[in-house]
Amino acid sequence: MCRIGSIKSTTPIPPSMALRLMLPQQEGHDNSGFAMVMQDLEGVFAPHKDKPLLSFACTGKGKQIADDYMDKKGFIPVFQWIPDLELRPGLKIAAMPNYVFSNYDYPRDMRGASREAREELLLDTRLALRRLLEKEGHGFVYSFWPDVLTLKEIGDPADIAVCFGLWEDDGRLLAKNIVSQCRQNTNYAIVRYAAHPFFLQGYTLCANGENTFYTKNTEFQKSLHRGYIGFESDSQNFLYTLHYVLRQLKWPIKYYKHVITPLPFVEAEQRADRKELSLIRESLAHLEINGPNTIIGLLPEGQMITCCDSKKLRPVVVGGNERMVAITSEVCGLNVILPDRDASEDIYPHEREMVVIDNDLAVRRWNQ
Amino acid sequence: MESVTTQDVTRNDFPWKISYHPERCTMCGSCTAACTFNAIAPVMARRDLTVSRKSFPEPVREHMARPVIAQKNDVDNACVGCGMCEKVCPNQAIAPVRNPDSRFPLLARAQGPVKRGGRTNLNAQRTLDSIIVGRISQMTDPSLDSERHTFDIRSPLGRVLKADELPFRVEGDNLVLTGATPPVHWIYPAIFSDMSIGALSTRAWEALALATACLNEKHDMPVRMCSGEGGMPIKLLESPQLKYVILQIASGHFGWNRIIKALPKMKTDPAGVLIKIGQGAKPGDGGLLPAAKVAPHIQAIRGVPKADLLSPPNHQGLYSIEESVQKMHLSLNAAFGFRIPVAIKCAASATSVSVYNNLLRDPYKICGGFFIDGIQGGTGAANEVSLDHTGHPVVSKLRDCYLAAVMQGLQGQIPLWAGGGIGMTGNAAADVFKMLCLGANGVIMAKILIQLLGCVGNERGRCNACSTGKCPTGICTQDPRLVRRLDIDRGAENIVRYMLAFDSELRKLLAPVGNSSLPVGRSDALVSTDKAVADKLGIQYAC
Questions:
Q1: CB B245 within 8 A of CB B232
Q2: Contact check, Cβ <8 Å, A251/B175
Q3: Cβ contact (<8 Å) for B519 and A214?
Q4: How distant is the Cα of B528 from the closest Cα of chain A, in angstroms?
Q5: Is the pLDDT of residue B182 over 80?
Q6: Cβ–Cβ of A210/B150 closer than 8 Å?
Q7: Contacting residues for B193 by C-beta, under 8 A, at least 6 apart
Q8: Band of the pLDDT at A185, cuts 50, 70, 90?
Q9: Distance between CA atoms of B491 and B455, rounded to whole angstroms?
Q10: Does residue A186 contact residue A222 with C-beta atoms inside 8 Å?
Q11: Cis peptide bond N-terminal to B264, omega within 30
C-alpha cells in the first residue's frame, strides 16, 4: 500500500523532514522511489518567489531542447540550480543525467498580462516542453509555477536523499509546505510521471489506493481540460477533479468532497441542499470515485486538505503542534517528526469528513 | 390400404408433434379443453388389441374402435408446443415434442406472411455470455461485502447538464441554485419495459403494475414501469401510483385521448414520457394489435373500433430528429409543465450513433433519455420476417453510443437505457451489470417479466402465439376465459421475488469489483473470451 504524507509548517522545513515522516512507514518492498512537491520556498529560491520555477529531469540533449524552447518563447532565466549528484556505487537510484530547477522571468509581452493569462501560459509551456522531451525520451517536466519545486526519482528514498544531499539540511532547499510519497507506481509500469504528488496550475495532490473508477474518470477528464493528460497513475484523476472543481468551476472546497464521494441518495434526499447535490451528482457522475483511497492536497494559496473515499478503505491521520501540522498514512511517521505533540488531539478523518489546514495552521474539519 | 398423396399435410410437417400414451389416458378431456389452439381433439381410432376378459388368462386379439386424443393435421391448428396439455394431464399421458423435420415455414406462408409474437428465433446469440466480470479486487484493493456494505443502486432518467452550465451562484461556502434545470429522476436501473394493455391482458398488465408498486412501497426499489402504447386505466391515471409509470406515446397515439383528459385530475406527475420511435423486435415496422385482441375494454381504453390496430412505422408529421425535438419533445415537456423527463426509444440500428449525437447536440437540452432496443427484444405481434431478419444487436450499439459521447465529453448528458434480450438466460442481474460497465445507465426489460408471470414462449419456436389472441397462459390475450388462468397476485409475487433476487445478485457483482455505486462506463471491469467481441467493445481479451 502506498504511504503518503505532507507537512505544513510556520517556519520553513527541509526535505529531510518529509523523509523522516515517510521512512518509518515503510513496509516490505514498498519504498521504490521518492517524489515531493515543495511550495512557499525559502533557501536559494527565496529571492525569486514571484518567478515561475521550472522543475525537470533530463538528458544533456533534453536540457538543450528545453533551453532553446524557453529562449524562443521569450522566457528570461533569472536563477538556476542544478544539484551535484553524489552517485557513489551501491546507491539504489535510477538517476537521470540532469536535474534542473530554473526560475524564469515572463516574456516581455506577458509582464503586464493578467494572472489568468500568465497561468495559462505557464501550463501551455510545461505541456509543450513535456511533449518536446517526451518525443525521444530526453526528459520529464514536472512543474512550472512560481514558488513550487518538484523532484521525482526512482530508487530507494534514503539513497535518493543521499544522492541529492537532502540529508545535509544545508539550508538551500526549504519550504513551508511539502507533499511527498516514497513509492513508484509499483503495480504498473514504472514511469517517473506516475509518481505522486502530481501538480497542475497551483494544485498539488497525492493519493494512495487503487482508483477503481479510473477508466470512467479518465474518459471524462480527457475532454474537460487540455492539462488533463498522462494518466500514468490512477491517482492523477483526483488532482484533475480537484483542479476542475476549484479552479475551473470555481466552486467552494467542500464541493470537491461532494463530487468525488456523493452522499448516498437516502441521505442526500433529507438535506436542504438536496437539489444542488443532486445536480452535482448528475453532471459529474463520471468524476465520482469509489475507493479505496486517501487524498492529500495542497492548494494554490497554501491550504492543505485531506479526505477519504466513501467507505474509508485507506487510513490517514492528522497531527501537529503550534509550529507544524502533518497529514500522513500512519501515525508512526507523525511520532518521528512530532514526538512532542499531544497525540490525543490527532485526527483520524472518517469517510464523510474533510480536513483543511490553513496557513496559520488552524485545522478546520467538517462533515460532508 | 392408404395411398400417398404428396401434397397432403401430415403431423410430421409441423414444428411440434404430440406424444400420446393411450394406455395412460382416461379420456378426461382436460387436454383438449386446455388447448387454446384447437390442435388436439378426441377421435375414434381403429385398434388391434390383445385382451383377456376372463378371470384367468385367455388372451384374445380383438379389432375395435377406441376413443383417443389425436393431433390435428391442418396448418391453422398446428401445435405451438406450449405444453398446456402436459401441464393439465393428471396421468402424464400427453406432451408436445419438438420436431426437427418440420416443414412448417413453407406450409404456413400459403396463407400470406407469417405473423407471430415473441422474439427473434434466428439471432439469439448471446454476446453477453462471452463477457466476464474479470477485474476482481485481489490485494490491490478490497472487495466489499455484499451483505454488509450499503450500495447506491440508482440511475438517472432526464437531461443532465454539463457542470459549467448549471445555474449556480456561490454564496459564501455554498452553491445556490438560481435557475431552472431539466427534471432528472434517480430510479432503479431496470425499467419494466413497454407492454401495452392490449398486447397484454388486463390481468397481466395489472400484475406488472402491482409488482412495480410493491417494489417501490415495500422494498425501497424505485422501479419504473412503462405503460406501452395502449393507454392506462383511468383509476391508475388518477391515483398516486401514477408516479411509478412512464407514459408511452407511439405513432398510433393510442390511449392519449384518455391521458390528456385525465391531466387535470392527476394527483401526481407520471415518472416520465417515452416517445417510441421504433422497437428492436421489428424495427421499421409499426405497432400491431390484431383485431382478435381488440376486446371491448381495449376499444374503450384506446377509443377505437374492433379492427386491426396498426401504428404507422413513422410518427406522421415528423420529418427529422430536429423536428422531433421541436415538436414532440417540447410539446410533451410542456404538457407536463417541464416537470418530468421526456425520453425517446429507438430500435438499435446502424444509425443509432447518428441519432444520439444529434440529440446530444440539441440546444434545448430537452431529451431526457435515449432508449436503445436490440434485435432480441420481444413483441406481441410482428411479421416473422421482421422478427428474424431485421434489427441490430444491442450490446455493440450501446457501446458505440457511449463511446461517441465519450469522444465529445458528453457521456451521461442523455442517459443511455438499453434492452432487448436482457435476462434471456434467466440471469438478468449479470446482463445488467455488464451493460452498465459498457456504458448503459440502466436497462429496459419486458419479456423476462411475462416469463415470470408464466409465459412459456422462447426464442426456439415455442409458443410465440402472442398475436393470436389464444395465449394459453392468459398473458397475451383478451379472451376472458383464458385471462382467468392468470393469478394476478401470484404473478406479481413472482416478479417481486425475482427482482429482490436480482437486487442481491447485482450487489454480488458490485462487491467483488469493490464498488458501492453503479460502475457506469467501467469497461475495465470486463473481459471477453471472444477476441472479436473484445476488440469491438474495447475491453480486454482473456483466454
A1: yes
A2: yes
A3: no
A4: 17
A5: yes
A6: no
A7: B226, B377, B419, B444, B445, B446
A8: low
A9: 11
A10: no
A11: no
Is the per-residue pLDDT at B186 higher than 80? yes
Instruction: Please provide the size of chain B in residues.
Output: 543
| Average pLDDT taken over every residue of chain B | 95
Nearest CB to A313: which of B142, B163, B172?
B142
Q: Is B176 on the interface with A (CB under 8 A)?
A: yes
Instruction: Choose, out of A183, A228, A245, A282, the residue to mutate when testing the contact with B (most B CBs < 10 Å).
Output: A282
| Residue B50 near residue B60 (C-beta atoms within 8 A) | yes
Measured between alpha carbons, how far is A294 from A2 in angstroms, rounded to an integer?
10
Residue of chain B with shortest Cα separation from A275: B177
For chain A, domain boundaries: 4-37+175-367, 50-146
- pLDDT over 70 at B212, yes or no: yes
pLDDT digit string, tens, across residues B364-375: 999 999 999 999
- DSSP-assigned letters across all residues of B15-26: SEEEEE-TTT--
pLDDT at A225: 98
Distance CA B136, CA B143 (A): 8
Looking at the domain that runs over A4-37+175-367, which CATH code has it been given? 3.60.20.10
Q: Is A1 on the interface with B (CB under 8 A)?
A: no
Whole-angstrom Cα Rg for chain A: 20
Reported ipTM: 0.94
pLDDT at position B106: 96
A303 in B contact zone (CB under 8 Å): no
Distance in angstroms (rounded) separating the CA atoms of residues B382 and B375: 13
Residues with Cβ < 8 Å from B214, sequence gap 6 or more? B492, B496
Mutate to test the interface with B, among A290, A311, A368 (most CBs of B within 10 A): A290
| B144 contact A CB<8A | yes
The whole-number pLDDT of residue A1 equals 66
All 3 cell numbers of residue B416? Answer: 443511455
Considering the segment(s) A50-146 as one domain, its CATH architecture is 2-Layer Sandwich (3.30)
| φ and ψ at residue A291, rounded to 5 degrees | 80, 175
- CB contact at 8 A, B200 and B455: no
B458-475 residue pLDDT tens: 999 999 999 999 999 999
Judge contact between B275 and B343, C-beta under 8 A. yes
**What distance lies between CA A343 and its chain's CA centroid?**
26
- C-alpha to C-alpha distance for B278 and B284, rounded to whole angstroms: 7
Q: What pLDDT digit, counting tens, does each position of A319-332 carry? A: 999 999 999 999 99
Eight-class DSSP state of A269? T
pLDDT tens string B322-349: 888 888 899 999 999 999 999 999 999 9
Q: What is the pTM (predicted TM-score) of this model?
A: 0.96
For residue A127, give the amino acid letter.
L
Tally A–B CB contacts below 8 A.
119
Instruction: Give B-chain residues touching A256 at CB under 8 angstroms.
Output: none
Interchain contact B183–A (C-beta under 8 A): no
- CA-based nearest residue in chain B for residue A225: B409
Q: Dihedral sign for Cα A353, A357, A363, A364, please.
A: negative
